[in-house]
What does this fold into?
Amino acid sequence: MPNIVVVGAQWGDEGKGKVIDLLTERTDLVVRFQGGNNAGHTVVVGGREFIMHLIPSGILHRGKFCIIGNGVVVDPAVLLEEIEGLRKRGIEIDHNLGVSDQAHLIFPYHRALDKLKEARVGPGKIGTTGRGIGPCYTDKAARVGIRVADLLEDDLFRRKLRMNLEEKNALFSKLYQAPTFQFEPIYEEYRGYRERIAPYVINAPMVLNRAVAEGKSILFEGAQGTWLDIDHGTYPYVTSSSATAGGACVGTGVGPTRIDQVIGVVKAYTTRVGEGPFPTEFPPPLMEQIRSKGKEFGATTGRPRRCGWFDAVLVKQAILVNGITEIAVTKLDVLDDSPRVSICTSYRLGGKILESPPAAIDLWGKMEPVYEEHPGWLMDTSQVSCFEDLPPQARRYLKRLEDLLRVKISIVSVGSKREQAFHV
Ligand code: IMP
It folds into this structure.
């Protein structure tokens, strides 16, 4: 099995968890490379639903080694809660989990800053998950972040925590007129985490590269999606990490020459959570219909997801910036009751036709999507187990996506259960 990166080619929530679960059977290691507990990867196994926020969903398979890479930001309370929650449900977590000593830690002041920043900007807010992700990556880039390795060294940890609190408390009191944070309670809380996390801490680049040298295969589990990527997304309505395939190298310490394939995951339509432009967003009646059929509510925050038609312009660009070699299409069954299905093939802006979106975010609101319409299939596809058994209109819809995207569709998913997916 080759080394494969799995990324979202839309705005996240494409169903990557399910695709990763399918591919994990044939892989040896699974590694998360960016994001944090803003992610929520849903996997249904044997009728039981698991929502993973930090631990790679590969942990649900016995004998796979799962790693939280250096590019991930780790909220230790969430990590420990997730470990305990999985154990209670009979999932073994022991020598099968590793946490990079270079991963950055989320602190209570990051969560507070995330919420205060959003409240302060008001209508222009990003609509973050409020988990402290942005402020933690801000500290990383500002070179004041506290990493897992720092937590293990008491003197270093004390020093860095004090320095951070001094700076953050000035912000809380002066800019936000908000309560400040005391050193001792945070120090004690995190000292408690130290011993519990220490057994999992590894030198992840060493472990991963040794595995490559031994001929083992690695699955790189992306979180969020291309259009939420800090560089390639709808900036500033993005997350703070590299959710594109390049992030897999940076966020794990495995070089680009070791990656064999990049699988892009897309929904058969489009969704987005939080603020920001969304050219193919449905009008209200269709929005409610697809949202309820597709259970389109955030796995992390429970927020209703915005839904719209498939946007081939965005996915085409995602294919370019990720070097996507194959596509997995999920939730095809959600379109089963639609008498017609539309695909956005370009945008119209001030009399011009655009084949790719502009970088300036204000122009997005002025663009009109150009659609082509296809007849729906009006048949239940949720029990279909091979491409040939799909209704002809559904096959034509997928073939049209392949033609537009110029990439092969290799997996189709027609429901949340492990069995409701097939290779093409
Ligand atoms: P943050 O990552 O919490 O800073 O949020 C920034 C933006 O990314 C917001 O629009 C969030 O709704 C969105 N976002 C973050 N994580 C996910 C995810 O896993 N799925 C979908 N959207 C996400």
